[in-house]
Task: structure prediction
Amino acid sequence: MTDHAKLVGRARELAPVIAKRAAGAEAMRRPPDETIRELIEAELFSILVPRRWGGLQGSLHTHREVVEIISAACMSTGWILAFYSGHNWMALKFSEEAQAEFFDGKNYALIPVTTAPTIRIEPTDGGVIASGRSPWGTGIVHADWVCTGGRGTDGDIYIVAMRAEETTLVDNWNMAAMSGTGSNDFEIHDVFVPEHRVLRLLDFVNGDTPGARLHDDPVYLLPLMPFIYCEAMPVFSGGLQGAATAFEHIVKHRVRTHSRAVVADDKLAHTQLGEAAAAAHVAERLVSDQVHETIELALSGHTFSLSDRIRFKAQAGFVVDHCRRAVNDIIHHSGTSNFADDSPVQRFFRDINMLATHAFFEADMCREQMGRSLLGLKPNTPLI
Result:
């Protein structure tokens, strides 16, 4: 059995258990400890870690399918899985010395990565001093390392890596959706970061760093944004599949309150269910195709041009908006009772709609960049 088949099989085994914990994770506002332990034991955080550090050096195709399976069970857990797995790829942008620290004694690292330059970075002998507060710390609850962006006194923007115990978690993740991710802020108080764990953000974003070149897979040299689409888009397609599956259960078992009509006998319900299933299938295929094209371009040695990056961004925004519209139709057709706390449909509805506002995926911004490009105008966002 291939590593791909083994990992996909492990994800399928874990999915029903994770689905049962979804409401509990939401109530706790963080991933359950046992879920993180099980994902580690299944080696699902090690998929993108290179063999040099004991990882599986697997494919982005494997990452995509595994994240979709877990996201169809619980989008919060899928988001955590996507980020912990994908952020191991990001860790490879740092120096060899830093990578040896990240993966010391294990074939994975649990690393929140935030790129917004919200902290202050001051030079000092042998490194920098970092201070400030970083938002959106997905993975901070179970982190062993932290990477965050900051602005230096020279005006340049950097990303720095430090041990999680050198930061302070701010318990402020009180959200109406994606509650189970525990994506709290974290604070940094005058932490010394050695030079080997400091990168210019521009180098980090462009992707082709000396650290990435230590490994024999050109996928490790990808620019940041095309990789992020491969990293996180499966959470959307997986979440939509979870919503479509939950809707199928509703159609099979729902009886209308006043008329006592069996919904499964309703021709319109057949159409609605078919549309939901088709929408989920289309999302999965579009994400798979984008991952495939990204890999093929990397393997060919192709340098990602500005037009490539804009096109990938537009495609990502299209997929995300497709998932948002489809899940909105599903909840509309599910009946009022499925806004109850114990209905998974309403959770998928809230989670997809929240994630669709993410700065990297917000559809109007993604489409705007494509439109500007067609008119010969430059992008008006750095997130390309």
Q: What stands out?
A: The CA atoms of residues 225 and 384 lie 6 Å apart. The domain at 113-204 is CATH 2.40.110.10 (Butyryl-CoA Dehydrogenase, subunit A; domain 2).
